[in-house]
Amino acid sequence: MSGVVLLRVDRVGGAGGHPRHLHPALDLKILHAGIPRDGRLSVTLVDGWLTKGGPQAWVAQALSGEPRVAVIKGETWCLPEAVECGRLLRQAGVMTIAIGQQVSHAMRSPVPQWREAFDLALAGEAEEELLGLLPRLLQDDTSTFRSYRQHFTQGHHFVVEAPDRLPRPAYSNAEQLAFAFPFPLPGRLLRRWAYVLSASGCPHRCRHCSTVVRKSSGERLRKRSPDKVVDEVAEHLASGAEAIAFEDDTFLVDRRHFLAICEELARRNIVAPWIANARPDELDTERVAAAAACGARLFKVGIETATPRLIELIGKARDGETWRRQTEDGLARLKRHGIASVGLFLVGLPSETAAEADATVRWAQVLAPDYVQVQIFRSYPDIPWWQDLAPELRDAEAAYHYGSLASTAAAIAPQALPLLQRDFYRRYYMRATFVAAHVRSCWRHYCAPAGIAAGLGRLGYIAQRAGT
User: Fold this and answer.
1) Angle at Cα 371 formed by Cα 370 and Cα 373, nearest 5°?
2) CA 254 to chain centre
3) What pTM was computed for the model?
4) 197 and 115 in one domain?
5) Which of 103, 116, 239, 309 sits a CA distance of 20 to 30 A from 185?
6) Which helix (H) or strand (E) holds 89?
7) Which of 128, 158, 188 is the last residue in one of the domains?
8) CA 239 to chain CA mean position, Å
9) Dihedral angle, C-alpha 285, 288, 290, 291, nearest 10 °
10) Which residues form the domain of 188?
11) What is the CATH number for 239?
């Protein structure tokens, strides 16, 4: 065996029918671009999000490259599948390394057969560390095993310290099509997408946020040079991408960094469509205007709840009333500048009442984002409300919010939370005012066959969730 296989695992059967925004495994793509090849070394990427079939099929594809080492990326919703892939590859004599959200979960809560599946596990942002580690492992240097195992048992999370030195991932035409944003956007239909990370880390300390589900790791923001970010954007556009998704946990968090990227895009006359994540308190006049001027088409905005005391409880902001005003002002600015939004909401927050959940639905109708996404709040092992869970709800099978009814300390029965989620979707999407506004802004999308097919699938899901 003389190669490395990079494997991303998915949940067999999907996530309860929820519309999937398929996005690339950036860490695996970076490793794929950065592992040095020679005539004796092969590097294979197997993406279970794109290659259906399950552990047996993914492992068979992985073994076709005769790997010596397998890097297995799993998320919180596919722990059993990730463990099964690791176990099968180890049985075939392959050294297995676990990365991804699954590692953060396994550090704090037992996962059945974890030890049988993985030789090593690296939590957090593992790509920089692995680029140095993999060559040593391929040369049969096993002296580092003990220290890396101690990292796992001690809860160490790796972070990328020098993001400008990482290789840039590339996307094939098939990947650009597969990773398209799944919902219609105002303007022309965008079919080919590429993904860019401008910075890692998030300086905010929200108490409900977990490393188990974060895309990056650490509180310290580690920024790339704006010119290198724009270099990468230009490369993706030259390769055929029609739009860019910035993968930062929150793209606008550092004002100077964000505005410098916008200025560099403007200097090069790049006005490509792009989307990103944002917080309401970042959507001020200067940043929204700069975003609109350089191609912003949509922000996914973490709003969470209408209740000021809950905003303060989860540490989203010190002053919940100010947060409400910033949310209302920020979404209004996006509308004035022609930028769409997805409002991200939670039901079942700690101590939340049914009346407070109802108030959030009514506020969402007033805010009128282009879309809403409603999740049932889920406690993970590294946030304060984990201990409130019943022991049977702390196991791996109940570890993901799409696969469990569990909440934590809400003044609402867990069994009622899916009904609240369904009611939220029904009351938001089934309004005549929403339908009229959506058709008015996104009608071009439905003129294309691909847009019609995708749109019908999304509408079917919304209708299912709304109970109609």
Assistant:
1) 155
2) 20
3) 0.93
4) no
5) 239
6) helix 79-91
7) 158
8) 24
9) 180
10) 170-466
11) 3.80.30.20
